[in-house]
Amino acid sequence: MKVASGLAKGIVAAPELAAAAVNAAMERADIEIARGVLLFLSSDFASHPQAAITAASRAANCLQVAGCTSTGLFTEEEWLLDVPAAAAMVFGDGGGIRPARPEDDWRLALAAPNAVDTRWLDAPGRRFGAVSGDASGQGPYTVWSGSRLAPGRRCEIAFEGGHFRIDTSRGIQPLSEPHPVDRVTGHDIHAIGGQPALDGLARLLPLDAGDSRQFPLHLVMAGVVYGEPDNAIVEGRYHLLPILSTNPADRSVTVSGRVKAFDRLFWAIRQPLAAERDMNLMLDRRIFDVPRAPAFGLCFPCMGRGPYFYGGVDRDLEAITRRFPGMPLLGFYGNGEFSHLDGGNRLLQYATVLALHYPGAD
Question: Tens digit of pLDDT for each residue in 187-205?
């Protein structure tokens, strides 16, 4: 399969950046006509992306250009944040992209923040990808397919010439074992394992975070396991729910999703070392499952999981390029990630979704 990536950055958001990224990829792939282009643009292009999309299409001699805008993007060479930039992956002989059809199984899903809904996620087909946008979910973030802006601000792309193996790194450090929820009202968890929810959480947090009036809400999460509770955390059989508030008056904790009585819940915290360890464990699984090298990779980390989280270095990107040296890689930092877990398509937060593509049948 002929496939390669390219990256370009500049001072202003000009269409020439998209053409430069595509030209660099075309040269590396040694092709003159592409059978498909994935193009990710920095948010500087969000209000006027069509000229850049058209420039990429002309450079590739191809009408199948799909992608979106995001605050940050990367290839196997480098990550870029807060700078006008374009990242592209081109496909030649043996590969290609097209809009997904109903019969397609795995499909790349890209969507603006206001275009995500449960009916779409629950439709047939397994989805992976991310939400175009930044941590706030604000701004005129755009999505395109077939070299045109997507009317519904989302698109689904199928790939030809092989199959995907997809995995997800959740990147959390469990603070407790799963315990049954004793009492809950809507999103408010009142008691877990025989004690008030807030009291149990406060005891588990690091000493500098134990004051319930100053909880690091952006770092602490609730995990709800599914299936047999034994080894559920180790096997990744859980859903994560961000904590919205702590309520000292009634010692409850409010989470972002509904929890039922008798659900088994654990508390977790986001930590760079835990995230890095989890990413490496995920890559170990991929290498063990498929010992041959993938043709290319697509990666979608949360904006809250990128270089800002790791202190100015993208440890996830480093781990991937270390395990798969020379593999073409393309991705962007999103405002939520799509992955197929527990028999359904899920919208995740603070995760990294990695899709590795292998030539031939699964």
Answer: 999 999 999 999 999 888 8
Predicted TM-score of the model (pTM): 0.89
How buried is residue 82: exposed, middle or buried, by Cβ count under 10 Å (0-12/13-18/19+)? exposed
Q: If we measure between CA atoms, which residue out of 328, 334, 350, 341 comes closest to residue 30?
A: 328
Q: What six digits make up the tokens of 20?
A: 């430069």
149: which strand partners? 144
Distance between CA atoms of 210 and 202, rounded to whole angstroms?
5
Task: Return the domain boundaries, the chain.
Answer: 3-162+295-358, 172-269
Contact (CB, 8 A) for 306 and 319: no
Residue 212 has a pLDDT of 47
Q: Which two tokens stand for residue 321?
A: 């390029």
Question: Is the CB of residue 15 less than 8 Å from the CB of residue 54?
Answer: yes
H helix runs in the chain, sequence order: 15-29, 50-60, 118-121, 197-204, 272-289, 315-323
Sequence-separated (6 or more) residues with CB below 8 Å from residue 355:
106, 108, 128, 164, 165, 166, 297, 298, 299
pLDDT at 209: 45
Q: Which pair of tokens denotes residue 293?
A: 């090298």
Measured CA angle at 242 (ends 239, 247), to 5 deg:
125
Beta bridge partners of 235: none
CA atoms of 86 and 84, how far apart (whole Å):
7
pLDDT computed for residue 210 by the predictor: 42
Tokens for 41?
């643009």
Counting Cα atoms < 13 Å in the Cβ hemisphere of 27 gives 8
C-alpha 128/C-alpha 338 separation (Å) is 5
Quickly count: other Cβ atoms within 10 Å of residue 268's Cβ. 22
Strand partners for 347: 338
Q: In the chain, which residues have pLDDT < 50? A: 209-212
**Can you tell me the distance from the alpha carbon of 293 to that of 52, in angstroms, rounded to the nearest whole number?**
33
Do 336 and 345 meet the contact criterion of CB atoms below 8 Å apart?
no
Could you tell me which residues come within 8 angstroms of residue 95 by beta carbon, excluding any fewer than 6 positions away? 1, 2, 3, 35, 36, 159, 160, 161, 162, 295
**The residue type at 133:** G
CA distance 248 to 215: 11
